[in-house]
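Troubleshooting: if your tokenizer reports a length mismatch, compare against these two reference records.
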Amino acid sequence: MVDPQSGPSWQLLWQRLDGLDAHARMLRRLSQEEPLLQARPDYPRPPLPKRSYAAELRETLEGIRRRIDDVLHLLPEALPGSEPPAGGLDEDAPAAIAQRLGTLAKFADTLLVEAFEPLPPLPKHAPPYVLQSPRRDLAGSKAVSLSYGLEEVAAAIRNALLSRTNTGVAST
């Protein structure tokens, strides 16, 4: 029997998941900074630092997209078959995990666009303390949701890998 942990796809997938977790934590930190904070000039708040985190945010979101693509590419090699791991739920099956990753990739693409769009104008009757027009969520809250989703999927993949290793199912 082949040890699943000795396969290059298993080890590479584990490393990509570590990178995905690191990018998710970075995205959560950046959710409290501009441009994700999306502060309005007419909202009274303490002075913000002059630094913009736009370049770091763009690099983080593009890194998330690359890591998701890498994980999607390595997933069939490291977790062959369509059955969930032993004792797992149907949502832990490789196809379901790949579908969740695809959804998170679209979410990251949307966030990459929305984070750099100007806020919509407020209606004329709106008081000055209204933060956001009610037609969309703030980009910072979307970033936090994306980061938690990435961490959940990474944990599900790790659990599936360890389950296959513990039950002796060879993956390469």
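Reference record two:
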Amino acid sequence: MNYFIFSTRGDWDSTSLYNNGQEFLAGKLYIQLSTSRDLDGSPVRGGLSNGGAMTAYVLPQEDGANEFAIFPGKIDLDVPTHKVTVENTSPQFAIEFTRVWLDGEDVTEQVVDLEVNVDAINNNVSGFITIYKHHFLASDEVATYNLL
């Protein structure tokens, strides 16, 4: 099983990726997770308990290398303002076995979207996580946190 750790302080010199304790030289790290929406396409309460879809891979730096699946396994994303952990230990990569933590808090049933694209080949970096926050007496809210 894979255990990836991605760490950055916001620049290429401070960026690293390890898998099972060994440095993993990658040209790209890509994660896209989306949970189910209502008929209008709006986020709904429940996060991954409603189902969803995820793509997650790293592309090694070697010429002609194939994408390398992150899951089954776990990835920690240590970025300047947050820490996100995603874990799926299912050999079939079944979405219902996915767990997500934001800054140590389990947000599996609140996550709406997670996208991380660290593309060293094209010098492009982006990342965010969107969380559905249910409020008992007030209107629910959807909050997006920039990661990269």
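Descriptive notes for reference record two:
- The mean pLDDT is 93.
- The chain has one domain: 2-146.
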